[in-house]
């Protein structure tokens, strides 16, 4: 009897287990799942000889679904989205590299072995529970039918009335069935998206326009595109974080105005959150919505005219400064860079700063040095991600005078604790949020300091957040909006974007316009660079 009760409780718990773990999601356990009732009805009508194999198959399905839910818990915590059964398998090598780098080879193997044991245990437990209950149903057929009928009637009544023991979760639960249907639809959608995106790749309004005609309004002007890691709307909307960030932006607006800079700011909706920066970079530069690895691979294999590619074709020297890259980056070919400088070739001789070994002030100084080599006759375009504000947001470097950065050898060694990015999931959330705010304040202060010593008359700057930080900072369902700022010293450039309705200064107002990130390429080319699409 006790074993039967344990099997029933286990099966119900596995079916009600949510795919993300917040305080409200735990309320999903205050429910009655319909799946055991449907499974019991199926076993009742089946011949006795096939009940056990069907019960075992049902248990295996429950075990696999539970394993998927647990994977989704991790994905929601880190990336604010579920695991994609079609596309996310390509991330597994990166997970292995992350585990090796943060735990060491032996420990990483033990962690993976432990995960395998957990999955096997879930499968075995689910199969045991369904087989046990199947035997109970066979041994007590008539009482079991009455119990199933009673539970089914109660479930239908609760569903009809909409009873909720813990709002917003209904007592009459079909969450596992809904999950399976959603996964099937997602798989089908992922498989169908390849052809749909191929058509989007081919439909480029600028593909037949000569490159010189795409940049008539910026001839002789240097261009700098800055992606600020994890710079999301939460940095301005959350009072605790904004206390560290908004003073930097407001004072930065005043300081840059004194040196000839003007700024306009708005918001973009990023295709990703919590991670996947390369998807955001690809979206902004290509003018296409790149929200998964399949689309990214299709883009990389295409001849799509990216924003950097347009300037390269028009005669700009294009340089990608990539401080987070530690090896060759063949995907960079789609951006038509003349030169890619990664962490191995940046010439940084200073102390490491945890995951983001190269501090943003050095990256900005290197970008400034590259831009100095350009001229009106041979302008330069630089694209760089700033990565100090990458998780785990500690340690935070000390800001110095930009003139004193040099090769970085004189920078102060890190005083905080270096931790792997995934450490944010186990630390005190209030501490994580404070570290996040401090890291952004450092990066944004560095941008202001670098631009304040850079001539504003022949440079246009796009500074944009790539995505919101992890949910441990934003909380659940925070959205994917990120700030974007356009800076220039030439008033004519800012006049061209007057119709955008963006906020004056480095800090966008809360009601500033929100575009999708894939709109930037075309809007920049038409309104700022003077292109006319065909």
From TrEMBL:
The chain crosses the membrane at residues 54-78, 109-131, 143-163. It holds the Pfam family Sulfatase. The keyword Transmembrane applies. Residues 262-470 form the Sulfatase N-terminal domain. InterPro entries: Alkaline_phosphatase_core_sf, Sulfatase_N. It comes from the Bacteria. Keywords: Membrane, Transmembrane, Transmembrane helix. This is Sulfatase N-terminal domain-containing protein.
